[in-house]
Design goal:
It is built from ten helices and 16 strands. Bound molecules: pyridoxal-5'-phosphate. The site of pyridoxal-5'-phosphate has 12 residues, from helix 8.
Length: 334
């Protein structure tokens, strides 16, 4: 969308990538958008001068002075939030009126938008109002609630209001290229993950995050031997098994079953048995030279996070966000 401005979405510690990494990486973005007030303040204190949007707005009126002090732009999605702003004075804020066009999480129903708009515009503390909505199914045009249905509701309910419109998430940007707006709100695609509906490669996305560990033990199993808790994998022939220093306490999904892909020394293989807190096991059959110290890639470079997520019955977003604090982070590039 060549003429649109970009809110780079950095909620949840930049989808697990580290907020300060995102600050550097998204230097060219027009604004950063997140949910957490303390993290928004951290971005200001780290030198971000461009707009910052709080996508769930105020949780409590006690937050208002901080929002004003740091010139943050809250979403207003509820009557409770209108009340927090009504009657307030001091530094004026740009706010974002959220329209509920069918997602039914946050926002005012289309029939209320004009009234809320007028009320916001009349408030002393409000300097300006933008409009936004969020698509439920931009990656799945088969859904009944299509982006087209939501877009029409949004345009109908906001017609004639002189405001910037913010719409497209990653799915809409990648798969609904006919949709136009003033500001886009991509998240997962900026990190090289997909919102579904196609592979990262098909969208030309490369992963920002690679989760790696190494083999800390090798076991030679005989037919009939099993691996790990619950003995849920039993060998039907002699098999070499590698034990990897990575488990659910690192954020690896415990529900990833036998067969979930991983790379050992760059060679694709599969998980065996249950994920433990600190370890998981892999089949070394395709990598006979593997030994203690061999590099293991759980996702990222050479193995799209979406594939691992799919095998584990979840989405790449959840895996990236769940990386645990004890995982050592190394930042590549400068
Ligand atoms: C998380 C979020 C986005 C970004 O979504 P992606 O699917 O990661 O692109 C955009 N808008 C809102 C309101 C969000 O909560």
């Amino acid at each position: 969308m060549p003429d649109a401005k970009v809110w780079a979405v950095v909620k949840a510690d930049a989808y697990g990538h580290g907020l300060l990494n995102a600050l550097r990486a998204f230097d060219a973005a027009d604004g950063l958008s997140l949910v957490e007030l303390d993290r928004a303040i951290a971005l200001r204190e780290s030198g971000w001068r461009k707009p910052l949007m709080l996508m769930e707005g105020l949780f409590d009126s006690a937050e208002l002075p901080l929002v004003q002090q740091h010139d943050l732009q809250p979403v207003v999605h509820s009557d409770e939030q209108l009340q927090m702003l009504a009657g307030a004075s001091g530094a004026r804020l740009h706010v974002h009126l959220k329209v509920n066009t069918g997602m039914n999480r946050l926002g005012f129903r289309p029939g209320r938008v004009r009234d809320v708009w007028q009320r916001l515009r009349a408030m002393e503390v409000v300097a300006g109002v933008s409009l936004l909505t969020h698509f439920a199914n931009a990656e799945n045009p088969q859904a009944t609630l299509t982006p087209q249905v939501q877009l029409q509701r949004f345009l109908d309910s906001t017609a004639g209001l002189n405001a910037e419109l913010s719409l497209s998430n990653s799915a809409a940007l990648l798969m609904q290229s006919q949709i136009r707006c003033n500001w886009t709100r991509p998240g997962v695609m900026l990190y090289g993950g997909t919102p579904g509906g196609g592979s990262a490669q098909s969208f030309g996305l490369t992963p920002a995050m690679t989760l790696q560990s190494e083999l800390i033990a090798v076991q030679d199993l005989q037919a009939g031997d099993s691996v790990g808790y619950g003995s849920v994998f039993t060998a039907d022939r002699p098999i070499r098994v590698g034990v990897v220093a990575c488990g659910y306490a690192d954020g690896y999904p415990r529900h990833a079953p036998t067969g979930t892909p991983a790379l050992v020394d760059g060679v694709r293989t599969r998980l065996l048995g249950r994920i433990s807190m600190d370890m998981l096991s892999v089949d070394l059959t395709p990598v006979p030279a593997a030994k203690v110290g061999s590099r293991v890639t759980l996702w990222g470079d050479g193995l799209p996070v979406d594939e691992v997520a799919n095998a584990a019955g979840t989405i790449g977003y959840e895996l990236m966000c769940a990386i645990a604090p004890r995982v050592r982070r190394e930042t590549r590039g400068a």
